[in-house]
Amino acid sequence: MSEISSTARIVSLIRTLADPIKKFDIAALAQLFRTSERTIRRDLKELKQHGIDIQETVGPKNHKTYALDRSSLPPIRLTFEEALAVFLGKSQLSAFHGSGIENAAESAYTKLRVWLGESEARYIEKVAERVYFAREYGARVDQSEIVDDIMIAIEDCRAIFIEYQSANSTEPLTYDIYPYGLVEHRGSLYVVGHSCHHDEIRTWKMDRIQSTDLSPFPFQRPADFVIGHYFEGAFGVITGNITKVVRIRITGNAVQYASERKFHSTQHTIRQADSSVIIELRLNSLLEIKSWVLSFGSKAEVLEPDELRKSIAMVDSRKFQARPI
């Protein structure tokens, strides 16, 4: 069985040492995390250097055990609403399932639960259980090691090789990329960064990455790259170079659905005298908006741009399932 990646191991080590009852020696920790005693000693030293108070207890025959000194942690003062928000937010990390990010959230949740007290924590959990998040789920296989490798590459600004099976290719290809960040969209994770093969910024769906190989070589992350700005013109995660005004007329019983939510940051919803609405957006890619329009069937009409209108006209919208109203 392979050694747990460093990011996941450090996060899990903190959570393990936070156990209020158990104490672990070096050998037990090494066995638990499938690594060497030397690596565990190095991890403990690193945690201490970062201000995390690791308590060392010396028992009979100089037997040393370790635990997180919870008495040294600063007090956490939260309102009921703030604590509830944290508990609810934890359920939104399905895209990071099994990764260091989810483990970090679990560790934070455990610490918060300790400070709240058992009765208060149980009450907040009971309230949180009354809220259900209907969502799509991402990868159907365990990709925790891939996510952790990508996270390490992002944090350390290290190049990484990914074996990637695109939707249009018959076999996976290997790409050398400089990852800049992660994007969550509809239950799936995407990594955005510079593709050395294409010499441009691209986005890869994490579900389609079959394997990763971290490179020791660093890269320089562009100082002006802001992930939120990069996706401003995308309807989802696909970006382009030319921004265009998109205007779509929605009619019939689809009007209420289209009017009651905002689908994009640039959206303007304009009500018409005939009870229809016009959705106006500014996008730099038309690929994802095309499928969205087709999902409305005959209840959506593209007013502009002309290229999107013509593209929609060429497709038999009856092949697309109507959007639930």
Task: Describe this structure as you would to a colleague.
By secondary structure, the protein is an alpha+beta fold. The protein has 4 domains: 6-72, Arc Repressor Mutant, subunit A (Orthogonal Bundle); 80-128, no CATH class; 155-230, SH3 type barrels, CATH 2.30.30; 244-319. Helix content is 34%, strand content 24%. It contains 11 helices and 11 strands. A 5-stranded antiparallel beta sheet has the order 6-5-4-3-7, with helices on one face. A 4-stranded antiparallel beta sheet has the order 9-10-8-11. A two-stranded antiparallel sheet has the order 1-2. Helix 1 (6-17) runs parallel beside helix 5 (100-116) and helix 2 packs across helix 3. It starts with 5 loop residues before the first helix and ends in a 12-residue tail after the last helix. Residues 1-5 and 320-325 have low confidence and may be disordered.
Question: Short summary of the structure?
Answer:
The protein has 325 residues and is of the alpha+beta class. It has eleven helices and eleven strands.
